Amino acid sequence: MLRHLRKITPPGFLSQNRLSFIPVLQQRAESSENSNKDDKEKGSKYSRANVRKNVRGYVFTRYFDYLQNYDKVLEKKFPAAMHVYRVFMVGVKDFFGDFKKFLKITRIANTSPNGLKALTRKELELYYQMPRDMMKIAPVLLISALPFANYVIFPLAYMYPRHFLTSHFWDIRQKSEFHQLYLKEKIIHNRRIFRYMQSKLEVLRPIEEDFNKLSYILGLLGSGLHPTAQEILATKHIFGQNPYQMSSLTSGHVAALCHLHGVRTGLLKRARLAERFHLFRHMDRAIKHEGGVHNMQPDALKHACFLRGLNPTNLSNEQMIEWLREWVTVSLAVDTDTMSLFFHLPILIAYNHPNNWRLTHK
Question: How far apart are the first and last CA of the chain?
């Protein structure tokens, strides 16, 4: 190109403008190279390999998103089946969580020098309830492990949750309903126990003071009232001697107390009742050590009332606190010799409670 310019330009023109013209040519050449480079990069971006890579990444991203939201797809198409699935998944997770806590609590109770005294109220309640739940849920879990058996046992357990499942699998409505039914099965024995107490009263007639104290309390119960904690404690010694001490009670009387406190009857029922007394006394002691009844949460108050024989449905926190305070006052004053008073305590402070009467007579 320079040769062609030399031919068509004057002799002095090229030498004077040589230095200023050459950079322009170099700049044009560099811009041409950059343009070619951009075209190559653009072409490589839409090459077959890059397109295949981008498509593969898009497909896998969409696939993983679909898998992550697959439960929502199933819930739309099969809402009933997914509800059952969620109930069992959440229930099993909660159950095994409590099972791990139970193992830890059992280890503490067996290795600590203080034994059950080293446990909190919540731990003691779990220590009391978990063995029952384990026995109840074991058949369902074992049968579901068999081939294709889960297609039968899970729907069956879901249809009858009160009989086959524990509270880990219940919703809020079921918990309230089933706890009331369990309590009803216990307190229907109240009248029978009250009749046993009345039938033994004549044995105390030679001891006029004791006879008058207990006769007054039984008269209050017969007229629809309850004695105070102090009035009950004034008769504590009566439950440590004949005919109201544990060793003097008839077999039918002891069996009725077992039903009231959810203890199996049969052989060694007195020993099982004694174990129940010691466990609940530790619970009541833990309540006191943790600040008293008034520091308990509403759900804890309801659960404590259910365990001790009172239906707390529709009761205010103040009413539950007042009732539990009476219970704890008497419970902590009872010892091994007078434990019979503890087993009759649901009669003495809850026999005429309106909530219990509505529960047994509806």
Answer: 114
In which band, very low, low, confident or very high, does the pLDDT at 20 lie, cut at 50, 70 and 90? very low
pLDDT, tens digit (0-9, with 9 covering 90-100), for 75-108: 565 566 667 777 888 888 999 999 999 999 999 9
φ, ψ dihedrals at 276, nearest 5°: -65, -40
Amino acid at 214: L
3 state SS for 174-217: HHHHHHHHHHHHHHCCHHHHHHHHHHCHHHHCCCHHHHHHHHHH
Q: Which of 183, 208, 211 minimizes the C-alpha distance to 197?
A: 211
- List of residues 6+ apart from 336 with CB closer than 8 A: 274, 277
With contact defined as beta carbons under 8 Å apart, do 197 and 347 qualify? yes
| Beta-carbon count within 10 A of 303 CB | 19
Q: Over the stretch 107-125, which tens digit does the pLDDT of each residue have?
A: 999 998 988 999 999 999 9
Q: Cα–Cα distance between 139 and 348 in angstroms, integer?
A: 38
pTM for the predicted model, two decimal places: 0.78
How far apart are the C-alpha atoms of 15 and 327, rounded to whole Å?
Answer: 118
Round to whole Å and give the CA distance between 313 and 323: 13
Tokens of 193: 């126990």
Q: How far apart are CA 26 and CA 172, in angstroms?
A: 83
Length of the chain: 362
Encoded tokens for 306: 């259910």
Q: Are 97 and 171 in contact (CB under 8 A)?
A: no
Rounded Cα–Cα distance for residues 206 and 242 (Å): 12
Q: How would you class 186 by CB atoms within 10 Å of its CB: exposed for 0-12, middle for 13-18, buried for 19 or more?
A: middle
